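Supplementary notes for students who missed Thursday's class. We covered one full example, reproduced here. Read the sequence, then the structure, then the short commentary at the end.
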Amino acid sequence: MKAHKFILVLRIAVAIILIQTLRFKFTGHEDSIYIFETVGLEPYGRIGIGILELIAGLLILIPKTIWIGAFLTLGVIGGAIVMHLTLLGTNVRGDGGVLFYTAIATFTLSAIILYSQKKSIPINRI
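Structure (token representation):
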């Protein structure tokens, strides 16, 4: 598989992960409420982070904004990983670590995507 097709598969995977979790955040699922109450961000953090994940999931699919979506995903998911390691634990309400390991996978895939887009990032080079 060529590199650009491989990155496309990663981008789609990250977008699916980000967007599929939105139904829990936006409908006020009891597990989502529990998580955000535990970290002290319920309800505004739950909705706000859901909106950021939606934006990141869309941006990572648009060719000109891939790097922005990947960068935003790293920030949002990095925060989730920190919350798991400090306040939530890796096993949330008996999920066997699924949320934590999904966050680790999403973070890793986003880092790979961002690295693949390094030439697209508009920074001033000296």
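Commentary. The two ends are 35 Å apart (CA to CA). Residues 66-88 form the longest helix (23 residues). If anything here is unclear, bring it to office hours.
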